[in-house]
């Protein structure tokens, strides 16, 4: 089973990702901020990270930069998702180490398809 | 109500509560930046989550509040008391809408104007700032939030393009290109660039701001935007715009997206036609629907919106196999007179379309990837190319490259192009060796073309069934069922919440059955029916046995092998030892040992931490090992086994061990120990100090285990579930760490004690013994009450005093004293009286009470009363 | 010189580069009823295009280059570009 780590400070948003991805057969782990996310990422292995930008303790950019510098986990794909309505610079996300960037909210089908593709999980 | 909505309402209320309290604090101290940040974050969270639901008013209003708070915290606007009132009003409004949402699961129409009104008042405070925001937005990357703008192109031109693309099934890509305002200075000519777009079919050149008067115009400041449609694949455009990805938005669309009705709105209600049309469409009665459209068309002036919509409907229906979803979407649009949301339609998975109209999917589509897959593929590849153009720090370079390769190899697997994996792997090696990304760029370009070619060939071949089938096999995923999957199918998969619920109920049963002995007592003492009391007791014995069996069974369900956690170890050891140039062999035993799921879950993090420590600090580099006369390869052994009522896990390494002197020195330097204490301490005791907060043994903080998470975290998490951890160091020969954990956490044994007429619980595993002390046995050492128990001086604490309760004089009566062991030390705890030991289901303190650290939780007793269970460690 | 200014008509020829934008703008600022001739023009730089659009200038002769004519004329008319000849409708 492919494992996805969702890092977002909003419980509802994490629950949303969990629902969508678990329905697709993914195992989902959560972290509520960048720091917690980095700890989880370092301690367990994942096939994909989904990272929010604006979070307490450690923001998404810092988290992605740290991930890309850790040899054990730097090869893992990451999706960065900005908060709804915020016009954020996609390039900042890519420069920090994201492999794909979305504006929130991401429709369930789009999320499911993209996560499947980025983890190499065959279509159902 | 969906759990997601319920969660949203609960979370938002919590955030709003925090916000209101915070605002009041700000009112009295406007300079409290921490508070402001806290409020901002709470509001930001609500806004982020609100986007998941159809509740625009909430999103709009909260967004306005967020902007104001953001301006406040960055001190762009000055604090004004009236802001607080307005913000409070806004949040009251949101709260009210949440209530509405809770009752009806949806918000009534027409609230958005209210949201905009309130939002406008909030934004009034940041007028000057708004101008900047607008400018910022025009500078950031363009995106498509809708496709209605396609309506700016004349309908007949779109119609021609539509029929052409439906006929040849070629790709269509919409683009928007907003060149940088300063681009002329870097020698760019955006118009030239646009003219190079392959298959450019429709183009609009519009200003990004109102035209300045000629007198004020700056000829070298670019204010143009280019948008349109090309009859070309996404990849071709991405290639063309590869140097300005942040200034372009590209999207693969299907021809239906061109169906944007335009024209004068009319007031006629079309509901009846829409309903009839939907019925006909769902029956796939295309002839009937065409007839209905024909009949209605003459009722509208040609330049009206409705006439335009009907013409588009006709065009969609002219196809041999009309697309049901598109037809329905256009019909629905007629109900409201709004353009159909083709962007959302593009995001719909093919599955839905297929469900609705199994026979209607064009043959060529089924052969290749779905449109959604195709466009996701193109986007992923294009974005990898884009990220390559951005600067990065040297430390992240290989991480970025590696992650790009992981993405590509996964995506290729998904689209079943395993044939390209070898080339990918070769490129990866080359890029990593030479640090030259050119081969990767070429590969990315090649990938886009290859996928296009595959799609094209699939389409070309669709006329000859034999060949088409082969292509189909090559590029569509095949269903494979392996033997192991079949076996798993026999196992019943249960939602963990259901098991938890069952466990809660059994817990309640255990508690409820405890009421029976009380009842027996009452029967005997109050009603004087001794026989009845005896029968109740007999029944109690039976129920008790069943309850225990039930409990045992449910525990079994929750049992998981600890091996679950061990699975990640080999990878960890491999990666880390490689990074550190150490040679380490990992030997795991006892993976099958079982424990409760929750216990296993708490184990994961501490174990990995211990392992990291062993690899990083324990095992020596090969040269050092050889010098010490050890084998070059170090060994880490992980061994799990069941030990009575607990699970034991031992982690041994044959490294250098923990340097007790170094630990002592550090503890002294950090002020954890006095010199004298350190002197008196045995090495074994000193080594235990590695679990003390704020003590990391390695002199240099390494980037592997030294992230500020010391072994104290390990101790804390093990403590939380009632386990214990010990370490034993063999100087120069290795370190042994032993964790013991309870098998299950469901039932807690507590000793009940009386205090001020109420019952309090104390975890039984801490209780050493109970003694009754005559007051004369007490004496003071340095103002501290102590007593002697079997030749040992034991400090004494009075529970009433610890809980700030009155202490009535007890005279010469003996003191009921509980001897408890806290962090290895015996302490006497004076209570009013002892009561029985009991099994309870401990519920953690929740909500406001959650912050009362001196209590571990509450437990429901057999007589219905609630008992507080004390957290002694916190209390002392 | 790709732009020839004659009374109220400017004639653009060949490839108009970014350097042409400023003189053209200055010329247009002084003209009441300016017209441009694009017949022999093959490409105009974005900066020049922008000036023409802002001035809402009138075209006397469209470019002979069909491709340029197609995008330029529709943009200058403020209307949208024609694709191939209109279909059966």
What topology emerges from the helices and strands here?
The complex is a heterotrimer of chains A (about 120), B (about 900) and C (about 90).
Chain A lengths: L2 E5 L3 H13 L3 E5 L2 H10 L4 E5 L7 H10 L8 E5 L7 H7 L3 E4 L4 H12 L5
Parallel strand pairs in A: 1-2, 1-3, 3-4, 4-5
Chain B lengths: L2 H26 L4 H18 L5 H18 L7 H24 L7 H12 L3 H13 L15 H14 L3 E6 L12 H6 L4 E8 L16 E7 L3 H7 L7 E6 L17 H12 L3 H12 L7 H14 L5 H13 L5 H6 L2 H7 L6 H5 L3 H18 L5 H21 L6 H14 L3 H23 L4 H11 L7 H6 L7 H18 L1 H11 L4 H29 E3 L1 H4 L2 H12 L3 E6 L4 E3 H22 L3 H6 L6 E10 L2 E8 L6 H10 L5 H6 L2 H6 L22 H10 L3 E7 L3 E9 L5 E8 L2 E6 L3 E7 L5 E3 L2 E6 L2 E7 H4 L12 E8 L2 E7 L1 E8 L14 E6 L5 E5 L1 H4 L1
Chain C lengths: L2 E4 L2 E4 L1 E3 L4 H10 L4 E3 L3 E4 L1 H10 L2 E4 L4 H11 L13
Helix pairs in contact in C: 1-2
Description:
The complex is a heterotrimer of chains A (124), B (876) and C (89). Chain A has helices at residues 11-23, 34-43, 60-69, 90-96, 108-119; strands spanning 3-7, 27-31, 48-52, 78-82, 100-103. Chain A has 124 residues and is of the alpha/beta class. The model of chain A has no long low-confidence stretch (mean pLDDT 86). Chain B is 50% helix and 16% strand. In chain B, a hairpin with a 2-residue loop joins strand 8 and strand 9 (646-653). Chain B is α+β, with helices and mostly antiparallel strands and 876 residues long. In chain B, helix 1 packs antiparallel against helix 2, helix 17 packs antiparallel against helix 20 and helix 23 packs antiparallel against helix 25. In chain C, the strands form two sheets. Chain C has a four-stranded mixed β-sheet, with no helix packed on it. Chain C has helices spanning 21-30, 46-55, 66-76, and strands at 3-6, 9-12, 14-16, 35-37, 41-44, 58-61. By secondary structure, chain C is α/β, with parallel strands linked by helices. In chain C, a hairpin with a 2-residue loop joins strand 1 (3-6) and strand 2. Chains in contact: A-B, B-C. At the B-C interface, helix 7, helix 8 and strand 2 of B face helix 1, helix 2 and helix 3 of C.
């Amino acid at each position: 089973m492919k494992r996805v780590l969702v890092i977002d400070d909003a419980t509802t948003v994490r629950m949303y990702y969990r629902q969508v991805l678990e329905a697709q057969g993914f195992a989902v782990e959560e972290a509520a901020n960048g720091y917690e996310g980095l700890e989880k990422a370092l301690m367990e292995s994942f096939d994909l990270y989904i990272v929010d930008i604006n979070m307490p303790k450690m923001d998404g950019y810092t988290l992605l930069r740290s991930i890309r510098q850790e040899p054990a986990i730097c090869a893992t794909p990451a999706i960065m998702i900005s908060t709804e309505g915020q016009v954020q610079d996609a390039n900042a996300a890519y420069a920090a180490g994201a492999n794909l960037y979305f504006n929130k909210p991401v429709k369930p089908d789009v999320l499911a398809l993209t996560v499947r593709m980025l983890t190499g999980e065959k279509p159902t | 109500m969906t759990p997601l909505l319920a969660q949203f309402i609960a979370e938002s209320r919590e955030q709003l509560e925090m916000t209101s309290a915070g605002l009041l604090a700000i009112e009295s101290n406007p300079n409290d930046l921490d508070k402001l940040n806290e409020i901002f974050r709470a509001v930001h969270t609500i806004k982020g989550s609100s986007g998941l639901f159809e509740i625009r008013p909430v999103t709009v209003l909260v967004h306005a509040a967020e902007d104001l708070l953001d301006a406040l915290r960055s001190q762009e606007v000055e604090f004004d008391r009236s802001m607080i009132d307005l913000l409070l009003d806004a949040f009251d409004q949101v709260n009210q809408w949440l209530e509405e949402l809770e009752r009806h699961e949806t918000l009534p129409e027409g609230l958005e104007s209210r949201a905009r009104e309130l939002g406008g008042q909030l934004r009034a405070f940041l007028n000057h700032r708004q101008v900047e925001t607008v400018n910022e937005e025009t500078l950031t990357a363009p995106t498509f939030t809708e496709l209605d703008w396609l309506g700016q192109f004349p309908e007949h031109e779109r119609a021609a393009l539509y029929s052409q693309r439906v006929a040849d099934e070629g790709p269509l890509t919409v683009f928007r290109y907003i060149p940088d305002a300063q681009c002329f200075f870097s020698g760019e000519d955006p118009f030239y660039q646009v003219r190079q777009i392959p298959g450019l079919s429709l183009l609009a050149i519009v200003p990004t701001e109102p035209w300045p008067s000629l007198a004020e115009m700056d000829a070298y400041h670019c204010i143009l935007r280019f948008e349109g449609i090309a009859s070309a694949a996404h990849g071709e455009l991405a290639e063309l715009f590869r140097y300005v990805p942040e200034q372009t938005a590209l999207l693969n669309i299907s021809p239906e997206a061109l169906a944007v009705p335009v024209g004068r709105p009319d007031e006629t209600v079309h509901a009846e036609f829409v309903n009839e049309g939907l019925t006909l469409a769902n029956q796939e009665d295309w002839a009937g629907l065409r007839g209905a459209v024909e009949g209605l068309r003459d009722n509208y002036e040609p330049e009206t919106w409705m006439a335009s919509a009907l013409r588009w409907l006709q065009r969609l229906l002219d196809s041999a196999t009309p697309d049901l979803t598109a037809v329905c979407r256009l019909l629905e649009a007629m109900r409201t007179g709004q353009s159909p949301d083709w962007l959302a339609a593009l995001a719909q998975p093919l599955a839905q379309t297929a469900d609705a109209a199994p026979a209607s999917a064009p043959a060529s589509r089924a052969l290749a990837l779905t449109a959604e897959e195709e466009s996701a593929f193109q986007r992923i590849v294009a974005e990898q190319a884009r990220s390559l153009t951005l600067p990065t720090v040297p430390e992240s370079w290989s991480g970025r490259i590696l992650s790009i390769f992981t993405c590509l190899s996964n995506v290729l697997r998904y689209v079943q192009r395993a044939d390209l994996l070898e080339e990918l792997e070769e490129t990866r090696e080359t890029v990593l060796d030479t640090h030259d990304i050119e081969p990767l760029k070429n590969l990315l370009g090649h990938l886009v073309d290859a996928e296009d070619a595959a799609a094209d060939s699939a389409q070309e071949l669709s006329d000859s069934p034999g060949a088409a089938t082969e292509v189909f096999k090559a590029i569509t995923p095949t269903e494979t069922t392996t033997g192991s999957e079949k076996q798993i199918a026999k196992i019943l998969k249960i939602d963990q919440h259901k098991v938890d619920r069952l466990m809660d109920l059994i817990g309640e049963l255990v508690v409820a059955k405890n009421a029976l002995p009380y009842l027996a007592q009452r029967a005997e003492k109050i009603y004087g029916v001794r026989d009845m009391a005896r029968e109740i007791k007999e029944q109690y014995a039976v129920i008790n046995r069943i309850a225990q069996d039930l409990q045992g069974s449910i525990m079994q369900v929750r049992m998981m092998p600890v091996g679950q956690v061990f699975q990640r170890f080999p990878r960890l050891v491999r990666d880390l030892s490689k990074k550190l140039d150490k040679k380490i062999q990992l030997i795991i035993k006892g993976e099958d040992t079982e424990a409760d799921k929750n216990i296993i879950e708490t184990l994961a993090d501490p174990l990995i931490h211990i392992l990291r420590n062993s690899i990083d600090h324990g095992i020596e580099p090969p040269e050092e090992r050889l010098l010490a006369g050890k084998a070059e390869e170090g060994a880490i052994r992980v061994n799990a086994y069941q030990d009575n009522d607990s699970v034991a896990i031992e982690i041994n390494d044959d490294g250098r061990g923990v340097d007790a002197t170094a630990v002592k020195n550090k503890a002294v330097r950090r002020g954890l120990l006095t010199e004298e204490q350190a002197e008196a301490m045995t090495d074994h005791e000193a080594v235990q100090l590695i679990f003390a907060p704020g003590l990391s043994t390695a002199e240099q903080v390494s980037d592997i285990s030294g992230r500020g998470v010391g072994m104290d975290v390990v101790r804390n998490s093990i403590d939380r579930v009632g386990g214990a951890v010990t370490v034993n160091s063999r100087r120069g020969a290795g370190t042994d760490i032993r964790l013991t954990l309870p098998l299950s956490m469901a039932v807690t044994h507590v000793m009940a004690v009386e205090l001020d007429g109420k019952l309090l619980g104390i975890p039984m595993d801490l209780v050493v013994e109970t003694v009754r002390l005559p007051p004369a046995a007490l004496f003071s050492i340095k103002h501290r009450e102590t007593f002697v128990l079997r030749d040992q001086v034991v400090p004494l604490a009075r529970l009433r005093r610890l809980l700030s309760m009155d202490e009535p004089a007890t005279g010469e009566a003996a003191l009921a004293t509980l001897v408890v062991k806290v962090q290895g030390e015996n302490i006497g705890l004076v209570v009013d009286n002892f009561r029985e030991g009991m099994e309870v289901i401990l519920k953690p303190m929740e909500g406001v009470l959650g912050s009362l650290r001196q209590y571990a939780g509450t437990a429901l007793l057999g007589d219905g009363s609630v008992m507080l269970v004390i957290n002694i460690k916190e209390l002392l | 010189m790709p732009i020839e200014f004659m009374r109220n008509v400017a004639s653009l020829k060949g490839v108009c580069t970014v350097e042409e934008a400023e003189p053209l703008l200055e010329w247009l600022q002084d003209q009441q009823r300016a017209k441009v001739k694009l017949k022999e023009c093959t490409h105009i730089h974005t900066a020049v295009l922008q000036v023409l659009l802002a001035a809402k200038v009138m075209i006397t002769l469209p470019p002979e280059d069909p491709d340029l004519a197609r995008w330029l004329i529709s943009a200058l008319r403020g209307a949208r570009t024609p694709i191939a000849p209109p279909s059966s409708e």
